[in-house]
Design brief:
294 residues, four-stranded mixed sheet, four-stranded antiparallel sheet, 10 strands, 7 helices
Length: 294
């Protein structure tokens, strides 16, 4: 079953996505039309229960889908990983039943897109230094702040925003991106993740009904637990990227000739290729074992 899932997705990506991916990368454009296709293929939030419209895949199968996406381009894996491991996982783990029923099926089908707003410019990898604030006002929260380097930001319908309340407790919120005072600004001129949507989110007196709070998300540990889920997808994804790099290097080495013979015939080149393949095999075994433990 796991191999069949991997093979089906690889066939789709090789035929429908790979021929155009180079141009999208050059132009710095994300192929957002693919998100609906990802939904139909069942790879968005795919390990969640079937009642939310997912195939309820095993952790290994989910890892293989992330592998295949990043084999084509990191932007594809990043989009799907944020949707499933950060946004959908946040709502499933920390949301109310009403929130899960309202948002998860549409996110699973790719009918809605989500983003995850934790990182801030001044804090970087230290999220505890966040300055975004949420103060309660009657039956609403009012949120002010900014989030930086947010994948899917400009194309998202909802944003999971983490903010400190009046008691410095970190809370999670489901923020519709069409809320008054919510703006997503594109981050351009990137040398990496060029085909990914990367944004700055600005919240200027965003008024949010109290029922948009994730009721079970209390403290920074909730946000960090979501990141742990996302790191699992990255572990598989980078190995997909390594396969693509290895295959390209091997192809070049067998076709490029110097002094009358292919450079692949030289032991120095052979050692580099063997080291790459060994690293890839070792990485796959580690990812597989991690998936079994998960």
């Amino acid at each position: 079953e796991e191999v069949q899932i991997r093979t089906t997705l690889r066939h789709f990506l090789d035929n429908e996505v790979l021929p155009e991916m180079g141009k999208w990368w050059e132009d710095g454009v994300f192929p957002s039309h693919l998100i609906r296709d990802f939904g139909k293929l069942g790879i968005l939030g795919s390990i969640l229960p079937k009642e939310y419209g997912t195939p309820a895949l095993s952790s290994i199968s989910y890892g293989l889908t992330m592998y295949e996406l990043e084999r084509i381009d990191s932007a594809l894996r990043s989009c799907a990983s944020v949707q499933g491991s950060l946004v959908m996982h946040s709502i499933f783990t920390y949301g109310s039943k009403e929130q899960r029923d309202r948002y998860l099926p549409a996110l699973a089908q790719g009918e809605q897109i989500g983003c995850f707003g934790l990182t801030e410019r001044q804090g970087g990898s230290d999220p505890s230094a966040m300055e975004t604030r949420a103060r309660i006002s009657g039956d609403h929260y009012v949120i002010n702040g900014a989030k930086m380097w947010i994948t899917n930001g400009e194309i998202a319908n909802i944003a999971i925003i983490w903010a400190k309340d009046e008691h410095d407790e970190i809370l999670g919120f489901i923020v519709p991106t069409n809320s008054s005072g919510f703006t997503a600004y594109p981050i351009k001129r990137k040398l990496s993740m060029r085909a990914s949507v990367t944004s700055e989110l600005v919240l200027d007196n965003v008024k949010l009904p109290i029922e948009q709070v994730l009721p079970k998300a209390i403290g920074l540990s909730s946000a960090l637990e979501c990141l742990t889920q996302a790191r699992y997808s990255v572990a598989w994804g980078v190995l997909g990227a390594l396969e693509a790099v290895y295959e390209e290097a091997l192809s070049f080495a067998t076709k490029r000739s110097t002094f009358g013979r292919p450079i692949a015939s030289r032991q120095l080149i052979q050692k580099q290729l063997v080291d790459m393949l060994s690293d890839h095999t070792r990485g796959l075994l580690l990812a597989w074992r991690l998936g079994k433990l998960k």
